[in-house]
Write a structure and sequence with these properties.
The structure is a homotetramer. By secondary structure, chain A is an alpha/beta fold. Chain A is built from 14 helices and 17 strands.
């Protein structure tokens, strides 16, 4: 005796691969299906609609199929409310909690779809009705905006979960909308398809990235740059400072080392002891980064060192001078660290998360650690550009289900100058 | 005024992504379509069938869409005969010649579908009727088998094209069947999905590869090993020799360097001057490979050196002793070369092509150059395993549209011993 | 008018390259020299002695030469006491402070040479006489051992410097002994020379590494393993657990992710959702690591989860069961984290530092971040083995002036099983 | 009873590491030594002189030491004539033949030192007296110049050895001069030391390379560019064509694929089907390279296609138009090939060898195969610049004992445009 359920696919179900993966999943798991309705979008801006009757041998098999279909964005035709369970303790999720993807997600609550706020993956979803809201407002930065007594759903990372939070469990009443891949070559991000390779036209790709930055700025969007110290070592500091000054970059996310070498270059003309113009190894140069940290500690902070005139140039200088907020996250390989560096990983993650949620476009520039940290907090709808000379790094960063991500395997020391030239030339 | 044409998708159109890409293509190119018939395979061994009516603004747009659809395996519902044009000169193709994929392909000729023999990509397709056949039989190894006076279609690489060959042009009357991805986890090759990464379970993957080799042998298939010199340097020579001796490897494709270092190890105990057991650098070791070549030249050939007792062990020795045919292809970085090395690139390609067409499974072991050369000659239906420590190499080798290819980023010096242990243990 | 100074080179001045670099340095900086005495060790266990008279145009040039010579281990023939200056504030070094190398170092104080304790690079050197000692004992873990009222010298990282610490400045009265490269092929670490390459004999190298571990254990030494999560993903977890259980590994340094995936495998049979034996992607597998963290939080700690029987196997389990101390250092890309993870970078560094100073041999296994953090704290005399599939990682880890470091470019998923087999077989 | 021999070290014995390695070698091999005379160059342009008395237990041990010392450039104080033996057959060397390094080498013949012509490594050395010369002149391009009846010594690769050639064997009467590393930062090639890394200042390094090219041209030298197809794919074709046209590049060495894609871009606007400006994948683009080959075959040669106006731009076009000689070497992965491609590996090597011997500076641009082939033929005194995005490739190319080689890990698609800009701007 078979059991069945109606399932609906909506949106760009062809482009997103949703239909292919749904059909495949049903068959892989031993089920079968009939396409009851199929209305395909015939132009690229039209959405499609398909209604399938999914059949399986027993309820367990059906549930297993429905679970997988859900991952691909196929949802039951007759939505019921999501199940909510209280968190048993701080930082502990109820069994069977729903772990998020990074795609736009909706929770069925009181027969309405609530869009989940602050989408990011590997989170729990907390649902509040209006009454709860006042108390929640007092909690972490992850919390709700003050928008009246309406029920709300939002993500919480594990360590922010508090005892009693009403957490979505199971898979009923949850809708996921995987974004379709941009197909129109007219859009700023339609230019790059296929795998990661160093054998792509470099100058033309940089031109397209410049175009996407300009489009983002024109639309009032914010650009977040995530920078590794290789950017400084490879001599791209002055051009990066230029991008910050001119407002092509609105926010900066980096580690202690990036800021240290940026400041070392200002104070001593070197990056890790090497003069990035003459390529000379400075005498005593191996001490410069320790000195640089010591000087900033003496001043109290980077801002204080800029204001006192100790630091007179560079990326950090331009951030201070032009009010571009920055997050410096600490790590166990840091020297110092600088007083501005957030040494606690959880605290640093929270600061990164806030930046990530504000960003409309993210440039990940030759740092794996910080790019992964930022990427973890991004919804799949944010535009991402990954630049690294190591193809494995680019592959790893792109491999997060984002439809808006492009990668470029190139030298950061030539990329940033060329990008700056493109942005200035237009 | 729009024009339209019926197009048919047949086979594993969901699994192969054919449907998704066909729908996307039509819309990308400004066309529209109606699904006139849609009969989906409900179990994984069932084929599907879809008939679409494709519409476009004018004939040019329609042709452009049909061209792209064809690439994805969608074919006109009312097939006409393929167009044939004579090659204007040796090695010169007619304008608009049809350049092959590596997928199974059929040519419409006299209202019948001829399966194209010797499928490989970037080739021209030559069609012969029975009358022509006798003369063609006298030509290159690429030529036809003696199977009566039936018309035939087969591939020819550019440099084998002869003046007057009847070559398929345009896209009418050509059907391509892209293989579906293996979905059943039961099959020997169903084990690996997703991108290329070093962070996969190594021992278990090697076990699966051993299983696939055994399955191939059980089915009476032939295994071709493509080997780079790193295999010898990294100390895997003895285990590779074992695989040849025991018949897990039926044919060998390599370069001059592979054979030289294999023989160097036999004659002098070193590979590029390093003792692969003690790790010592032998005194005078840098001369050993030149000596080894010189010794083989003195004997006349590897076979002669084995027969005279000069060479007493190793991969080449086992090939000779156990009648495993090998191809040694020359390159511009060779020392020597050995008398067995085919120095002419075209001649070497022909020898490689013959091996490739005989193989049912190919192991590509830490050589990019030779693996690409072999891969160029393989139809997409041959099983391929690529092993290299450089992820870019594995990615590049897998990126050829084969549904039967798996890659593993690992150390050839540990891979071969573990594979040999797996194969022996079972 | 030239100025001159006598300089002495002592020890393995040929093997260490000290002589070559000293001669070169003098000439590069425009000086000249006469070899006044030259007594060369004629056997590999004999030390050499050379006394040079270095001449330069003026005092500034001479000081510059002496500074560089000092870096290479050449010291003034007539040592004077080191200069000490009080730290002006917490975490602030006096101008011109001496920044350490990772080589054994001696400070001239009251006409005696004090060996600097806790050698590690990029530190300040603090000198105490007996009187100060009592108060210092109350300070950080970096502080002095209680060994009487003798004067002492020891390193302090920048953030441990306290106002008033007497810090070595300038270069007078400091002696550095760079270790000689091991040249005798008999020693366990004499086996590997030359650059980093994947084309080395893998099995033989693993055998040598096993020999070095056994030698270290026989000598009563301690082995520290620094492990990345790739070790778990690649299926080497069971063999690593074995090495911990059998006492080949005495201490563990890792990140949150390593412990999470180790525990995930115990609780759910997967690592990042993949069954490392069958290679299957578990249904719901992407939640497993979050569940694993949540379970440990519920229990309170890994130890509590082992004791309650929740965790029953794996690397962390064996650490708990066999009293092998571990440090889990947090990072900004962590999920959770586990309650055992030290989230503050400075605190984590201190814990890492303590382990590093206790270790006689360090295995760095496929983690760049944690290996750099540990490597930063190691003196150049500790044996180090770096294993990674990325040659750049191995190069970067070896490039720290250690004479006792060997690197291997291989797959951690085959390396650990083969190492365990070697260690058991002997 | 010990035996002894006097050995002389001359030249830049400190800079070149000759002294260090000589001392180490003697001790490693169980010998001992006394420094009988030691006259050190005190300025960087002064040569040094050392005379050692080397002692060993018996003659065999002494010979072994002398062999190794010889490799490092230490030579017997009392030179005897080199031993010559006739080659027993074509392509067969006498036992114990002397295999060359790539350093300047001298052969003792009739009590005179003959400088070995056409230095390249892994070759035999043939000595001719005047009488032999006439016949030899008729042999291969590798042969002697017509410079009278003086005795001569020159290299021969194994496959050029002819029966009866008088070949140097043993190690008596051979002197090798390893070049010293350039230490003066004033020279164009003094700028780069240390290992291979992507984290170097990119723009400044390119500026230095431009300076070295200009210096080479000013000195009347010839620049050979070795180019891989990635150069075309990455969009650097126009700038490379510019360098050829303007005479910064005098000769070109490449493979079939480089020329094919260069011509494809001219004929169809694409490289491997991708428009390098718009990044669009051209419809039918996968056929373009086959068409391009077919077109050139139809014309007869690249030169004919340029003259007929079929090819109107690009790197090959500029080579033809400006009389820059090029070598296109075939390989087993080639499509086609073009009529200009030398398909025989030995023949191609000979053509490459001739170019290599004429070059004063070699740019190796993103091709491992061709760069190794050219590098094999270069003496260690030729300036080499290696550019590749893969650090392993750069390391492998630099690892050939050349003192004049610099490497840069960067993107060829940004490198060439920036280099062209630097060269034009000055």
């Amino acid at each position: 005796m078979t059991v069945s359920r109606e399932v609906v696919l909506e949106g760009h179900i062809i482009d997103s691969g949703m239909m292919e993966s749904s059909f495949g999943t049903i068959m892989d798991l031993g089920g079968s299906f009939t396409v009851e309705e199929f209305d395909i979008g015939r132009r690229k801006d039209e959405e499609s609609y398909a209604r399938l009757l999914v059949e399986a041998e027993d309820e367990a098999a059906l549930q297993s199929i429905l679970h997988e279909l859900h991952q691909h964005g196929a949802n039951p035709a007759d939505p019921k409310d999501a199940k909510l369970q209280p968190a048993p303790a701080d930082q502990v999720v109820p069994k069977g909690f729903y772990s998020t993807t990074n795609h736009p997600t909706y929770i069925r609550y009181d027969d309405e779809w609530l869009e989940v706020e602050h989408m990011e993956m590997d989170c729990a979803v907390v649902v509040e009705d209006g009454a709860e809201q006042r108390s929640a407002d007092r909690s972490s930065g992850q919390g709700p905006r003050d928008d009246g007594a309406e029920p709300r759903a939002y993500t919480k990372v594990l360590n922010a979960v508090e005892e009693g939070d009403r957490i979505v469990t199971g898979e009923t009443g949850i809708r996921v909308d995987p974004p379709s891949r941009p197909r129109d070559s007219g859009g700023a991000f339609g230019f790059m398809q296929g795998g990661v390779s160093a054998e792509r036209p470099s100058e033309s790709t940089i031109q397209k990235i410049a175009g996407a930055i300009e489009e983002t700025k024109r639309d009032g969007g914010k650009v977040l740059a995530v920078c590794g110290p290789a950017l400084i070592h490879s001599g791209a500091r002055e051009d990066m400072a230029h991008l910050v000054r001119e407002g092509y970059v609105d926010m900066l996310s980096a580690g202690n080392g990036f800021a240290v070498h940026d400041i070392e270059r200002d104070l001593y003309g070197t990056s890790l002891g090497v003069d990035t113009e003459t390529l000379d190894h400075a005498r005593h140069g191996h001490k410069h980064h320790i000195y640089a940290i010591s000087e900033v500690i003496r001043e109290g902070s980077i801002e204080a060192a800029v204001e006192s005139g100790t630091i007179e140039s560079g990326v950090m200088y331009e951030c201070i001078e032009n009010d571009r907020p920055f997050v410096l996250a600490g790590s166990i390989r840091d020297d110092g660290p600088l007083p501005d560096t957030i040494t606690d990983a959880v605290e640093a993650q929270n600061a990164i998360r806030e930046q990530a949620h504000e960003a409309d476009m993210v440039l990940m520039l030759s740092t794996l650690l910080h790019s992964v940290a930022v990427g973890n907090c991004l919804p799949s709808t944010t535009r991402v550009v990954c630049v690294d000379i190591n193809p494995s790094t680019v592959t790893q960063l792109l491999d997060r289900g984002s439809a808006q991500a492009v990668g470029m395997v190139t030298d950061i020391g030539t990329f940033v100058p060329m990008l700056a030239e493109q942005l200035d030339g237009e």
